[in-house]
């Protein structure tokens, strides 16, 4: 597993970890489902499990379920001002509902592209 992230994201994650000393100090990357714009990957503080793979980046211990890593690949965290950060993977899952990403997704409140 490999994780790429700008220093700004590393700084934010270190601040979150520092403010949550009573929580697990591992950053889990996981598939959170689909949104109007496609697959969504997210981050959470979590305990490391035997079924996880890991990667250390600048003092942060990232973890991901082995099966998700084998399916989706390496992780990139990108800064998208002013929204914040976006988590993406090498092989994102595709929505399997007959809708194109830009032709109507069925999401409430989404007008498409």
From TrEMBL:
<protein>
    <submittedName>
        <fullName>Fe-S cluster assembly protein HesB</fullName>
    </submittedName>
</protein>
